[in-house]
Amino acid sequence: IHSFCEKEDHNKENLFNSLNYDVAAKKRKKDLLNNKAKIQYFHQEKWIYVHKGSTKERHGYCTLGEAFNRLDFSSAILDSRRFNYVVRLLELIAKSQLTSLSGIAQKNYMNILEKVVQKVLEDQQNIRLIRELLQTLYTSLCTLVQRVGKSVLVGNINMWVHRMETILHWQQQLNNIQITRPAFKGTTLTDLPLCLQLNIMQRLSDGRDLVSLGQVAPDLQVLSEDRLLWKKLCQYHFTDRQIRKRLILSDKGQLDWKKMYFKLIRCYPRKEQYGDTLQLCRHCHILSWKGTDHPCTANNPETCSISLSPQDFINLFRF
């Protein structure tokens, strides 16, 4: 009997150790998939089914946070055609949708934002765009963190304070960027004929870029004040009715299109245009990036897809 009891205690101890090992193994696996701050939550499928009705399944599996986890935004920011689309989406989420994200989705959001900042620091492009995104996010977090105790953010308050400190650090890094002049000494913009310089300026869709370009050289400054250039910019972004409501005359009695542009952007949203967007299949109601394989039963899936703006994407999950 004594021998049997010792054997039974030994088996119990082995069983207890085995259970501890299983729990530890599961925790390590969960940490690897979900809780490592530097690893995005991984899904094999890069698409999500958007349910049409307000059902139990929709509530459980078709949320903004779940879509943010599934649609591979980490790879999208490396594509120049999708970069501005993702940044705009991050900005809209920062303004009003942070509390709609799950804990994992919020972590993915910060991970993707970090990759965006690192990309900008490396290639020194889209600096102002990311500065505005970080400022929008920081302002929103200041408002949400002040509501401590009201469960408006998932996670410990200290974690969000640390993230706010990280955002301030990113802003400082962007402010310290020194644009390096390319080593190439061939033909520059100012070497081109004036008609070509003006044609290039007409491709700029942001008036602030036009002003910045005019500060590079005196000749470019003269071209950047061209009335026709600012007129086309106003007509590209705004409707005739919006323009008529914000008419401004210069001292010479002519329409001051430059002043009108900056007044219009304070009153109305500018036109958005992206090289590539998320697409919704009207046949199977699957949301994905263009070119992503998904189980569509339509004879010609390409004709069933419609492009979604960043705001359209968010509106899909308002229910």
Description:
The protein is mostly helical and 319 residues long. Among the domains are: 62-176; 206-267, no CATH class; 278-314, no CATH class. Helices cover 58% and strands 5% of the residues. The chain is built from 15 helices and four strands. The chain has helices spanning 2-35, 56-61, 64-70, 73-76, 80-96, 103-123, 127-145, 157-175, 194-201, 207-214, 218-224, 227-237, 240-245, 257-267, 310-315, and strands at residues 47-49, 278-281, 286-289, 305-308. It has a four-stranded antiparallel sheet with strand order 1-3-2-4. Helix 6 packs parallel to helix 8 (157-175), helix 7 (127-145) runs antiparallel to helix 8 (157-175) and helix 10 (207-214) packs antiparallel against helix 11 (218-224). The longest helix is centred in the N-terminal third of the chain and has 34 residues, at 2-35. It is globular, with a radius of gyration of 26 Å. The N and C termini lie far apart (67 Å). This is F-box only protein 32. It is found in: Cytoplasm; Nucleus. Pathway: Protein modification; protein ubiquitination. Keywords: Cytoplasm, Nucleus, Ubl conjugation pathway. It comes from Alectura lathami (Australian brush turkey).
List the helices and strands and how they pair.
Blueprint (H helix, E strand, L loop, with lengths): L1 H34 L11 E3 L6 H6 L2 H7 L2 H4 L3 H17 L6 H21 L3 H19 L11 H19 L18 H8 L5 H8 L3 H7 L2 H11 L2 H6 L11 H11 L10 E4 L4 E4 L15 E4 L1 H6 L4
Antiparallel strand pairs: 1-3, 2-3, 2-4
Keywords: Cytoplasm, Nucleus, Ubl conjugation pathway
Protein name: F-box only protein 32
Subunit structure: Part of the SCF (SKP1-CUL1-F-box) E3 ubiquitin-protein ligase complex SCF(FBXO32) formed of CUL1, SKP1, RBX1 and FBXO32.
